[in-house]
Sulfite oxidase
Amino acid sequence: MAAAPANTAAGAVGGLAAAFAGLAAAELAAAFVRPESAPLTAVGAAVVDRTPAAVKEWAVRSFGTSDKLVLTLGVAAALALLAAGAGILAVRRPRAGCALAAAVGVLGAAAALSRPGAGWKDALPSLAGGAAAAGVLYLLVTAVRRPRPAAGRPGASRPMDRRSFGRLLAVAVGASAVAGYAGRRLGAHGSAGATASRADLVLPPPALPAPPVPAGADLRVPGVGPFLTPAGDFYRVDTALVVPRVDAAAWRLVIHGDGVTRPLTLTLADLLARPLTEHDITLCCVSNEVGGPYVGNARWLGVRLAGLLREAGVRPPSQGGPADQLVARSVDGMTIGTPVETVMDGRDALLAVGMNGAPLPFAHGFPVRMVVPGLYGYVSACKWLTELRLTTFAAYDAYWVRRSWAQQAPVKTQSRIDTPRPFARPAPGRVMVAGVAWAQHRGISRVEVRADGGPWREARLGDADGDDTWRQWVWPWEAVPGEHTLEVRATDGRGAVQPQERRGTLPDGATGWHSVTVSVHA
Ligand SMILES: Nc1nc2c(c(=O)[nH]1)N[C@H]1C(S)=C(S)[C@@H](COP(=O)(O)O)O[C@H]1N2
Ligand SMILES: [Mo]
């Protein structure tokens, strides 16, 4: 028995309307659970968790920071296809179609439950969404499948009742829009406390202030960013599809695990009552390609982690401590493992509360994150920190380690040409070639530049602001007409020259010299 094409179209439209109703109901429910549990976000996050490292690298390369938007649109498109399919099926077999709609909700719930740190409540929004979608779809298709007239020939397709279908469709879409909007508003209301807690936070002055940034650290070459990166321009890399907004008043940090003789539970006030250290640290991402943008430099304010760990009774492995890995966990379940030895070796490994003189922005980990000079972010810089657990590298693999990244990853020496830009067309004569170089905790001792494979020329370095930050550099180039390739390489504070060999970001950071091709016009 074939349904009329009009019924097929109505089924598809009904399926989409049912999906919209489901999303709206889920949004409303998520406002009472947490925003991360809404189905599109939960499924997107579950996809991120399961994406092989190589595919993720490709996505970040192709879409940059829009990768999250692309992902959410992809999930929405898949849902739309499923919804239309469920609607078309429902016109012929209402129960099967509605069951499919409900099953999509169960799938969303499973995705939400699979996230690290998820609890049973995270399943509720998707389940509510599936139920709402199934219900709305049932109402819509029963309108399409008007009761068969008694005299009707068996097997004949039935015309749909356009009027009641249209009316129901309008009501369903309208009610869903209202419910979805209410959910959004309620969700925003739910994070109002967090927003206020950040606005009200007054950071105490540092007991150990950082020396002022040397005047000559910033060479002020047009085309090179400022020495300290404003928080608003600071790169952001994380798996969070919605930025966690933590209420500072409710925040707690638990420190426990192997070798901890005095477990600690700290409030933000406890943390702020300790002497605060201010320190300039350049943070970079292991996913940064040679020449890439995922690096930034900030003035951090925080509590030295080593002192806190010592208070909890922790000894580093070199002093007989049983734990060699410190696992930081964030409120969204991210886990990041850092060597205990590194954190306690005297460097300014911080539990940071401030960034460039203000509380951390929500996107950068408010209220508290870790920052450890010399390590890539994925092994050191946990945002929205809530737990520190001492264990061993043998016993536990953190989030990215389970996805084929290295357990330990000190920052590799890198240098980048920021100006001229690739394929720039400068005029002949003096062209300022300039950029940044970094080798956190080892420092940068030299940067060299060459044109067209010629002899290396030493660039002028900006003043060093300690060993934990990048250094700017500049080299005046006498450009002659034609196409030219510029290359840069840095030497770290221990005399090791940045290797030429090109290697990708997996498993522990890219290597190779950055080069830029320009054509100097005649
Ligand atoms: N909770 C949480 N913390 C995280 C991440 C994350 O995904 N979730 N990403 C890490 C990575 S890979 C990097 S490079 C840094 C980036 O910090 P930023 O976004 O403040 O620049 O945060 C680290 N901390
Ligand atoms: Mo990263």
Observations:
- The chain has a mean pLDDT of 93.
- The radius of gyration is 28 Å.
